[in-house]
Design a protein that fits this description.
The structure is a single chain. It is built from eight helices and 17 strands. By secondary structure, the protein is of the alpha/beta class. It has a domain at 68-284: Alpha-Beta Barrel (TIM Barrel). It has a nine-stranded mixed sheet with strand order 5-6-7-8-9-10-13-12-11. Strands 1-2-3-4 form a four-stranded antiparallel sheet. The termini are far apart.
């Protein structure tokens, strides 16, 4: 066994932030930690040692995409199997005044990533975006695309255009959308515009990757870059038995196209940029409470945890998960 680094992680029981050590043993990378209340824990961080060390030594301090995720609703029009966010369709949407109070506090962390829930369930979404832009011009939309018909897209394009026929819309694909999300890609093709990114439905098995890559090739003319995320056990997203790491996806993609890692980008073990057959991909395998290296991802993208802190999106999700279970940094907050 050899020690790679010292860091900070979470106790998987009480969600306290505790010292941890990243080590190489049995041909893989592991994190080891000891909670004074709940004992010793270890979990795999990456299967491929060489890949992990290359990412560690790449010299980049943050993930490639900046931004602050601004939740404008807890509601959603889908119920997806792999979703970390626990929707609440009985909730009342925030007022624009309340949203702007948050924008005024976090606008310097921009761009502002308008998210939810599903933002397009708000009938006043266009007004929300336009109002935010008065204070923070750089705004992006994260959506499942289901509610964006041609009429709405025509209104979003001038609001979210970033030039070069690109619109700052980041869409997530889901089988639960029953093809309505694909209709948005067809509209983009018709109008000869590209979405900023498309998140292909989470990968729960490596044998799904060929079909997902074929899809990416088919719609490459409608998308600047694809995100391919492994399903994980974080916050509301549960049921993943076999952890898929970034290196697993990278090796599988090598079967379907020439892979050119983009090492000059700000890559991490859990977020990695590469070209596959000339198509840009970001491969994502979030840390969970068991293997999280907090210091490794102490960087954007940023997300407001429900205890009021602003964290990396994965860290905030783990904090929220702990709070839902009644724990906040080792302290019991509910039975």
């Amino acid at each position: 066994m050899s020690v790679v680094k010292n860091t900070i992680s979470f106790c998987p029981e009480c969600y306290k932030r505790i010292p941890a050590t990243v080590v190489i043993r049995n041909g893989s990378v592991w994190i080891e930690k000891n909670c004074s209340e709940h004992g010793f824990f270890c979990a795999m961080v990456e299967r491929d040692v060489d890949f992990y060390l290359k990412c560690l030594n790449s010299g980049n301090g943050r993930i490639i995409y900046n931004g602050y995720s601004l939740e404008v609703t807890d509601r959603c029009n889908l119920s997806c199997a792999f979703c970390y966010y626990p929707k609440d369709n009985s909730s009342k949407d925030r007022s624009i005044e309340n949203i702007m109070q948050e924008v005024d506090m976090v606008g310097h962390l921009g761009p502002i990533l308008v998210t939810g829930g599903e933002p397009t369930v708000r009938k006043d979404l266009l007004e929300v975006i336009a109002t935010i832009q008065m204070h923070c011009p750089n705004v992006e939309l994260i959506t499942n695309g289901v509610n964006i018909d041609e009429k709405m897209l025509d209104k979003l394009i001038p609001l979210l255009s970033s030039g070069n026929s690109t619109v700052r819309i980041n869409m997530s694909l889901h089988k639960e959308a029953q093809g309505k999300d694909i209709e948005l890609l067809e509209l983009c093709r018709k109008k000869r515009i590209k979405l900023e990114s498309v998140l292909i439905e989470p990968v729960s098995s490596l044998d799904q990757i060929e079909a997902k890559f074929d899809f990416a090739k088919e719609y490459a003319d409608t998308t600047v870059a694809y995100r391919m995320r492994a399903a994980t056990n974080i916050w509301n997203e549960k049921g993943v038995k076999d952890k898929i790491f970034v290196s697993d996806m990278l090796k599988e993609l090598e079967k379907y196209g020439m892979v050119h890692p983009i090492w000059w980008r700000n890559n991490k073990t859990s977020f990695f940029n590469t070209l596959v057959g000339g198509i840009p991909f970001m491969l994502i395998s979030w840390y969970d409470v068991n293997n999280c290296d907090i210091l490794d991802i102490n960087c954007p993208p940023l997300y407001p945890a429900r205890n009021g802190t602003i964290e990396n999106a994965a860290i905030a999700s783990i904090v929220n998960e702990g709070m839902d279970k009644g724990w906040l940094n080792g302290r019991r907050i509910k039975d």
